[in-house]
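Please check this today:
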Amino acid sequence: MDYEKIIQIRSNDLAPERGRILLSEPFMGDFYFGRAVVLLAEHNDEGSFGLIMNKPVQTAFNEIVQDFPPFDARVYLGGPVGADRLFFIHTLGNEIPDSSEILHGLYWGGNMEIVREMVLLGLVQPEQIRFYLGYSGWEAKQLDAELERNSWLVSKATVRGLLQTQPDKMWNYYVRRMGTEYDMWRRFPVDPQMN
């Protein structure tokens, strides 16, 4: 495999903003960010906040959130920051007060007590909400510097693509959508030692 050619591929020119995703470059071997798809929930002059979309944990929701009615929702690693805190995205819009729209039809945050009541009353289904331990955060200009170093690609996403693509196929799916220029990214082995 021509590793030099992979390194030479420059990041795209799409700017990061709320509702866009970050795709980690294939050499990133970090536990959290290796082949990660990060949904940006916020990006402004003060910094960036996102959630890793494709790293599910094996622990059941009710083992993590013990004071909650039984609920068969998936939990994901959101990122390395605040790993003891729970965040969530959902498709329920204004039914959950204080939530913020990330992209059309997808929201993050909101009143957790209302979520608890909705679960208790059967008004929310696991496919309508997704929970995350921790988040991915960047200080002001930090993400811009990482983009300059080609650590990430910025791409557009859809609610369907984010919520219905299998986590283990998501990075590949979105890199493929970037075009043939990035085919080498997809072919690069997860563990280069195994090549």
Helices lie at 3-8, 61-64, 112-120, 142-148, 159-164, 167-177, 183-187. Confidence is low (pLDDT under 50) at residues 1-10.
